[in-house]
Amino acid sequence: MTTSRLSSGGAEIDRSSKISFKWNGKTVNGFEGDTIVSALAGSGHQLVSRSMKYHRKRGLLTADYWDPNCFVQVGDEPNVRAGHRKATNGMDISAQNVWPSLERDMKSANGLVGRFLTPGFYYKTFVRPQFLWPTYQKVLRTFAPGGAVDHQSQPLYFDKRYTHPDVVVAGAGPAGLAAATAAAEAGASVLLVEHDHAVGGHLRWGSDADRDEAARLEAAALAAGVEIMTDATVTGRYDHNWVSINQRSLHASVERLVKARAKVLVVAAGLVERPYVFAGNDALGVMTAGAARRLINLWGVKPGTTAVAMVANEHGDAAVADLEAAGVSVTSVVDGRNGEFVSSTTASKGALSSVTLGDGSTVDADLLITAVGWTAPTSLLNMAGDRPAYDETAARFFPTKLPPEVIPVGGLVGDGSTAQIIEHAAGVGRVAGATGISARRQLQAATTRAAVVDGAEPAIPAMPEPLGRDPHPELYRSDTHGMVDYSEDVSSKDLVAASKEGYDSVELMKRFTTVTMGPSQGKLETVNAVAVLAEARGETIEEVGTTVWRPPYAPISLGALGGRIFEPERVSPIHPWHEANGVTTILAGQWIRPDHYGDAQAEVTNVRNNVGIIDVTPLGKLDLRGPDVPKLLNLLYTNKWSKLAIGSVRYGVMCAEDGVVLDDGVTAHLGEDHYLMTTTSSGAAAIWEWAENWLQTERPHWQVHVTPVTTAYASINIAGPKSRELLSRLTDVDLANEAFGYMRVRTGTIGGVDDCIMWRIGFTGELSYEIHVPSGYALHVWEHLMSEGADLGIGAFGLEAQRIMRLEKGHFIVGQDTDGLTKAPTAGIGGLIKLDKDDFVGKTELSTLDVASLPVLVALQPVDGSVVPEEAAQIVLPDSNDIIGRITSSRFSPTLNRSVCLGQVEPSHAAAGNIVTVLLFSGERIPATVMEHHAHFDPEGARLRG
Amino acid sequence: MLIVPCPNCGPRNSADMRYGGESHSRPDPDSTPIEEWRNYLYMHDNPAGWLKETWYCGSGCRRYFTTERNTVTNQFREPAINYPEPGGSQ
User: Buried b / exposed e across A429-456, counting CB within 10 Å, b at 16+?
Assistant: First the structure.
């Protein structure tokens, strides 16, 4: 036990507020303000995890969000970053992927065979024989790292927010705070986003004076009106400064995905401290100088008792001073600026026991801190198109070329005293503020309905003088090999081996060895990996270059990405009746529709014998007016419309230009220059757009006005032999067959409601009237139909009954029986394709098709009528599994007391009377007969015309 | 998500729009050789650079318009132009 809690100190813990939680079943005590890792370290727990591949013992390395060794399971939540997550009372925390325990992990045997687990081991070892792949998969899966997912977990709520600030500042260290404040003081609306739990950046774990400075900067930002978001990460920058922010630590929601349209993005990501590569650099007790400073100054934790410090910058010097102030005996300071270095360590039971220096001397120690330099986390700059360049004098990458709306500040662009960095960032903030305001005003001015553009056009000041760059020794790898990627267990030796095998470009090396591909995503290891490769190739870091950082900057949970769904749910005005009458609903697109009211088969029988009504309100309806409507109909539909008389309706199919079936429906000629087009329910919005597209872009001289009336009318289909009798009780329109025949339309009053449209069509195959009622009165008309039809045996029916009946009649559904490759002739509507018309959409392709080669939509009846094949079951050759088609629709027909199907089959198997083989999901093969007509029931249509 | 300049509504998120692809006029199907027709239908220029495209402002003015976008930088080049008013003379 080398880490312990100091008796005083720790700026961010509240010693008066004690907490306790379970760690692998044992109680651990800490204070309010502790992270899980600081509480563990404060209680003497150094061992936090086992490494991914070799199951080596691992303890804290950076003690922050990026710590690769600190992933734990908290209750049912896997992969929690213990270096970042605040500890709370009662947490149940355990180590991940260890068996039987963290201390005695059997899989650490992996470490013994470590020399076999070279890069590419899995690729090379488990490639043959192929028939063993499933076995390999099963075994290897037990070695997968990470925590356990609890499949019983309750769904959690994740939120979304949209915001439109003038300036987003990523990172609230001194530079970010200063830039945000200056931008806000210039009049801009500013959102400042901080990854950590508090603002201040590296000032937080500095001296008391540093923390005072951080507090002053925070107060100034708040006074200037900056919105500050902590424990939130700017995860990505996309086109036109669309910025995604993942916000954590919320009360009402687990996480919130914030989508911000920043006029200017100021990137103040700071610098990430880089670990040093040497033999034994992953022993417990080896950590970055930043980790030691955070432990001491934020949480009052003593990181060890006897320390060696390898330092190459002022930050390292300050860490040594912190260690001494905390009572740690610093026995050796290895100064990297003088060419001194650490060569290797030895460990006892995983924990550091001694350090061998570059001069060969060995020093006993239980703590080794390294301050060897910085990685510039340029991710957000990469996402804006920047390709940073390496500066060997400063030993880090710097940005090269950025669009004007993305501006880096702070450590990303240079060095200096805190005051210099603040001054520079404030200058940039003034530019960002003015630029953001100007961009916002341009957006407002371009919006014609915005009468007023806010404020005055700001003068954009000049950019401040750039920051200087301090020289820093290039310290990447010692004279020994060690871990480069802690989270993926990739050593520098592995990288050299990969390079020798030919994977010597940085992108190939990354993919072959998985270096930088773990949860740290290269923040700690990328530059070390590049340096090792450069050394292996005998080139410079500049020549090797770096991998491109892509979104997200930090991982986002799938819950946050899925998040709250803004899609509305739609219901018809008749929906209250459905709910009061035992409906089971089905979601169709955005619509919640009645599927059935308990027994779909009985609903079918009732329609066939008596009368039923169904709510088909989502049916797409377009009101078409103007002298050129027939031209539009002739263009969009494959059949002819010029001679459709007033008072008649006609069925039509629409194709895309490639001849694929797009939609179908019935259009009625209501009056002079006045038509009502119906589309499929799912196609309502798309067909409206489709019609507008042709009218606006290709035929702008046509006089047609299209008005969507899908929800202005509610639609009800009245079907069954008694439907005429029922409707006649509610309307004075003459319903006699001679007066109002099949495929005719009338307008009139129904149940006292004027301006209703009714037409006779036959999707169900029965005598039926489809009525379109002004929506506000739809519920009244529905209830009226139900009460007037009581003595006729009326029953409501749902989509399922309708689907059974249309299948009995062999009517296809676009998108169910056709797909994105189904050309019109396949659907059996050859008679509706009028190639002698002047022009229609799809004509050229349909004219040149080899129709005889197309699949054919046919009706199929399984020989054993009790078997209902699954929809999408394949139709195969009798003696093989070669696919020749598939079942597209399948139901049990109560009318015929047998199963009925539609399916697409290859033309050579489509002849009536042919027997085809259907391969069921179970693997069973059943014979089915190709029928002569699509309609299984009443193919002559006597019922619907009666 | 891009900001697309609608000539009527001003700059709006592309989620408000439908992308109509490369702008080109439909040849007369009867007088166009089939190879040329197929080129129109399937063979697009797909340049790395400026491209004239059609957008549909579905959540705003519901007008189709053309504009030029640089496919490399996603910059839009003014001005965006409406297709002619419907019902106008040819």
Answer: bbbbbbbbbbbbbebbebbeeeeeeeee
- Rounded Cα distance, A576 and A692, in Å: 34
Which residue matches tokens 């059935």? A596
* Neighbouring C-alpha atoms within 13 Å toward the C-beta of A797: 27
Entry pTM? 0.90
Got the DSSP string for A30-99? Answer: EEET-BHHHHHHHTT----EE-TTT--EE--SS-STT-TT-EEEETTEEEEETTTSBP-TT-EEEESS-S
* pLDDT band at residue A146 using 50, 70 and 90 as cut-offs: confident
ipTM entry:
0.94
Considering only CB atoms, which chain B residues are within 8 Å of A839?
28-30
How close are the terminal C-alpha atoms of chain B, in Å? Answer: 36
| A696 contact B CB<8A | yes
Q: Report the pLDDT value the prediction gives residue A117, as an integer from 0 to 100.
A: 66
Q: Could you state, in order of their start, the residue ranges of all structural domains in chain B?
A: 1-27+51-67
SS3 A489: coil
The answer to whether residue A701 neighbours chain B at the CB level (below 8 Å) is yes
Res A111: pLDDT: 57
Confidence class for position A317, pLDDT limits 50, 70, 90: very high
- A894 touches A605 (CB < 8 A): yes
Q: Beta strands A190-193 and A167-170: pairing type?
A: parallel
**Chain B: nearest CA to A171, how far in angstroms?**
23
Q: Which CATH architecture has domain B1-27+51-67?
A: 2-Layer Sandwich (3.30)
Give residue B89's pLDDT: 44
Return the percentage of chain A with pLDDT > 90, whole number.
86
Would the CA dihedral through A78, A81, A86, A87 be positive or negative? positive
Q: Does A162 touch chain B (CB under 8 A)?
A: no
Question: Is a pLDDT exceeding 50 seen at residue B90?
Answer: no
**In chain B, which residue's Cα lies nearest the Cα of A439?**
B11
For the segment A107-120, what is each residue's pLDDT rounded down to a tens digit?
Answer: 776 555 455 567 77
Q: Given pLDDT bands bounded at 50, 70 and 90, which one contains residue A106?
A: confident
- Cross-chain Cβ contact B88/A238 below 8 Å: no
A834 touching chain B per CB within 8 A: no
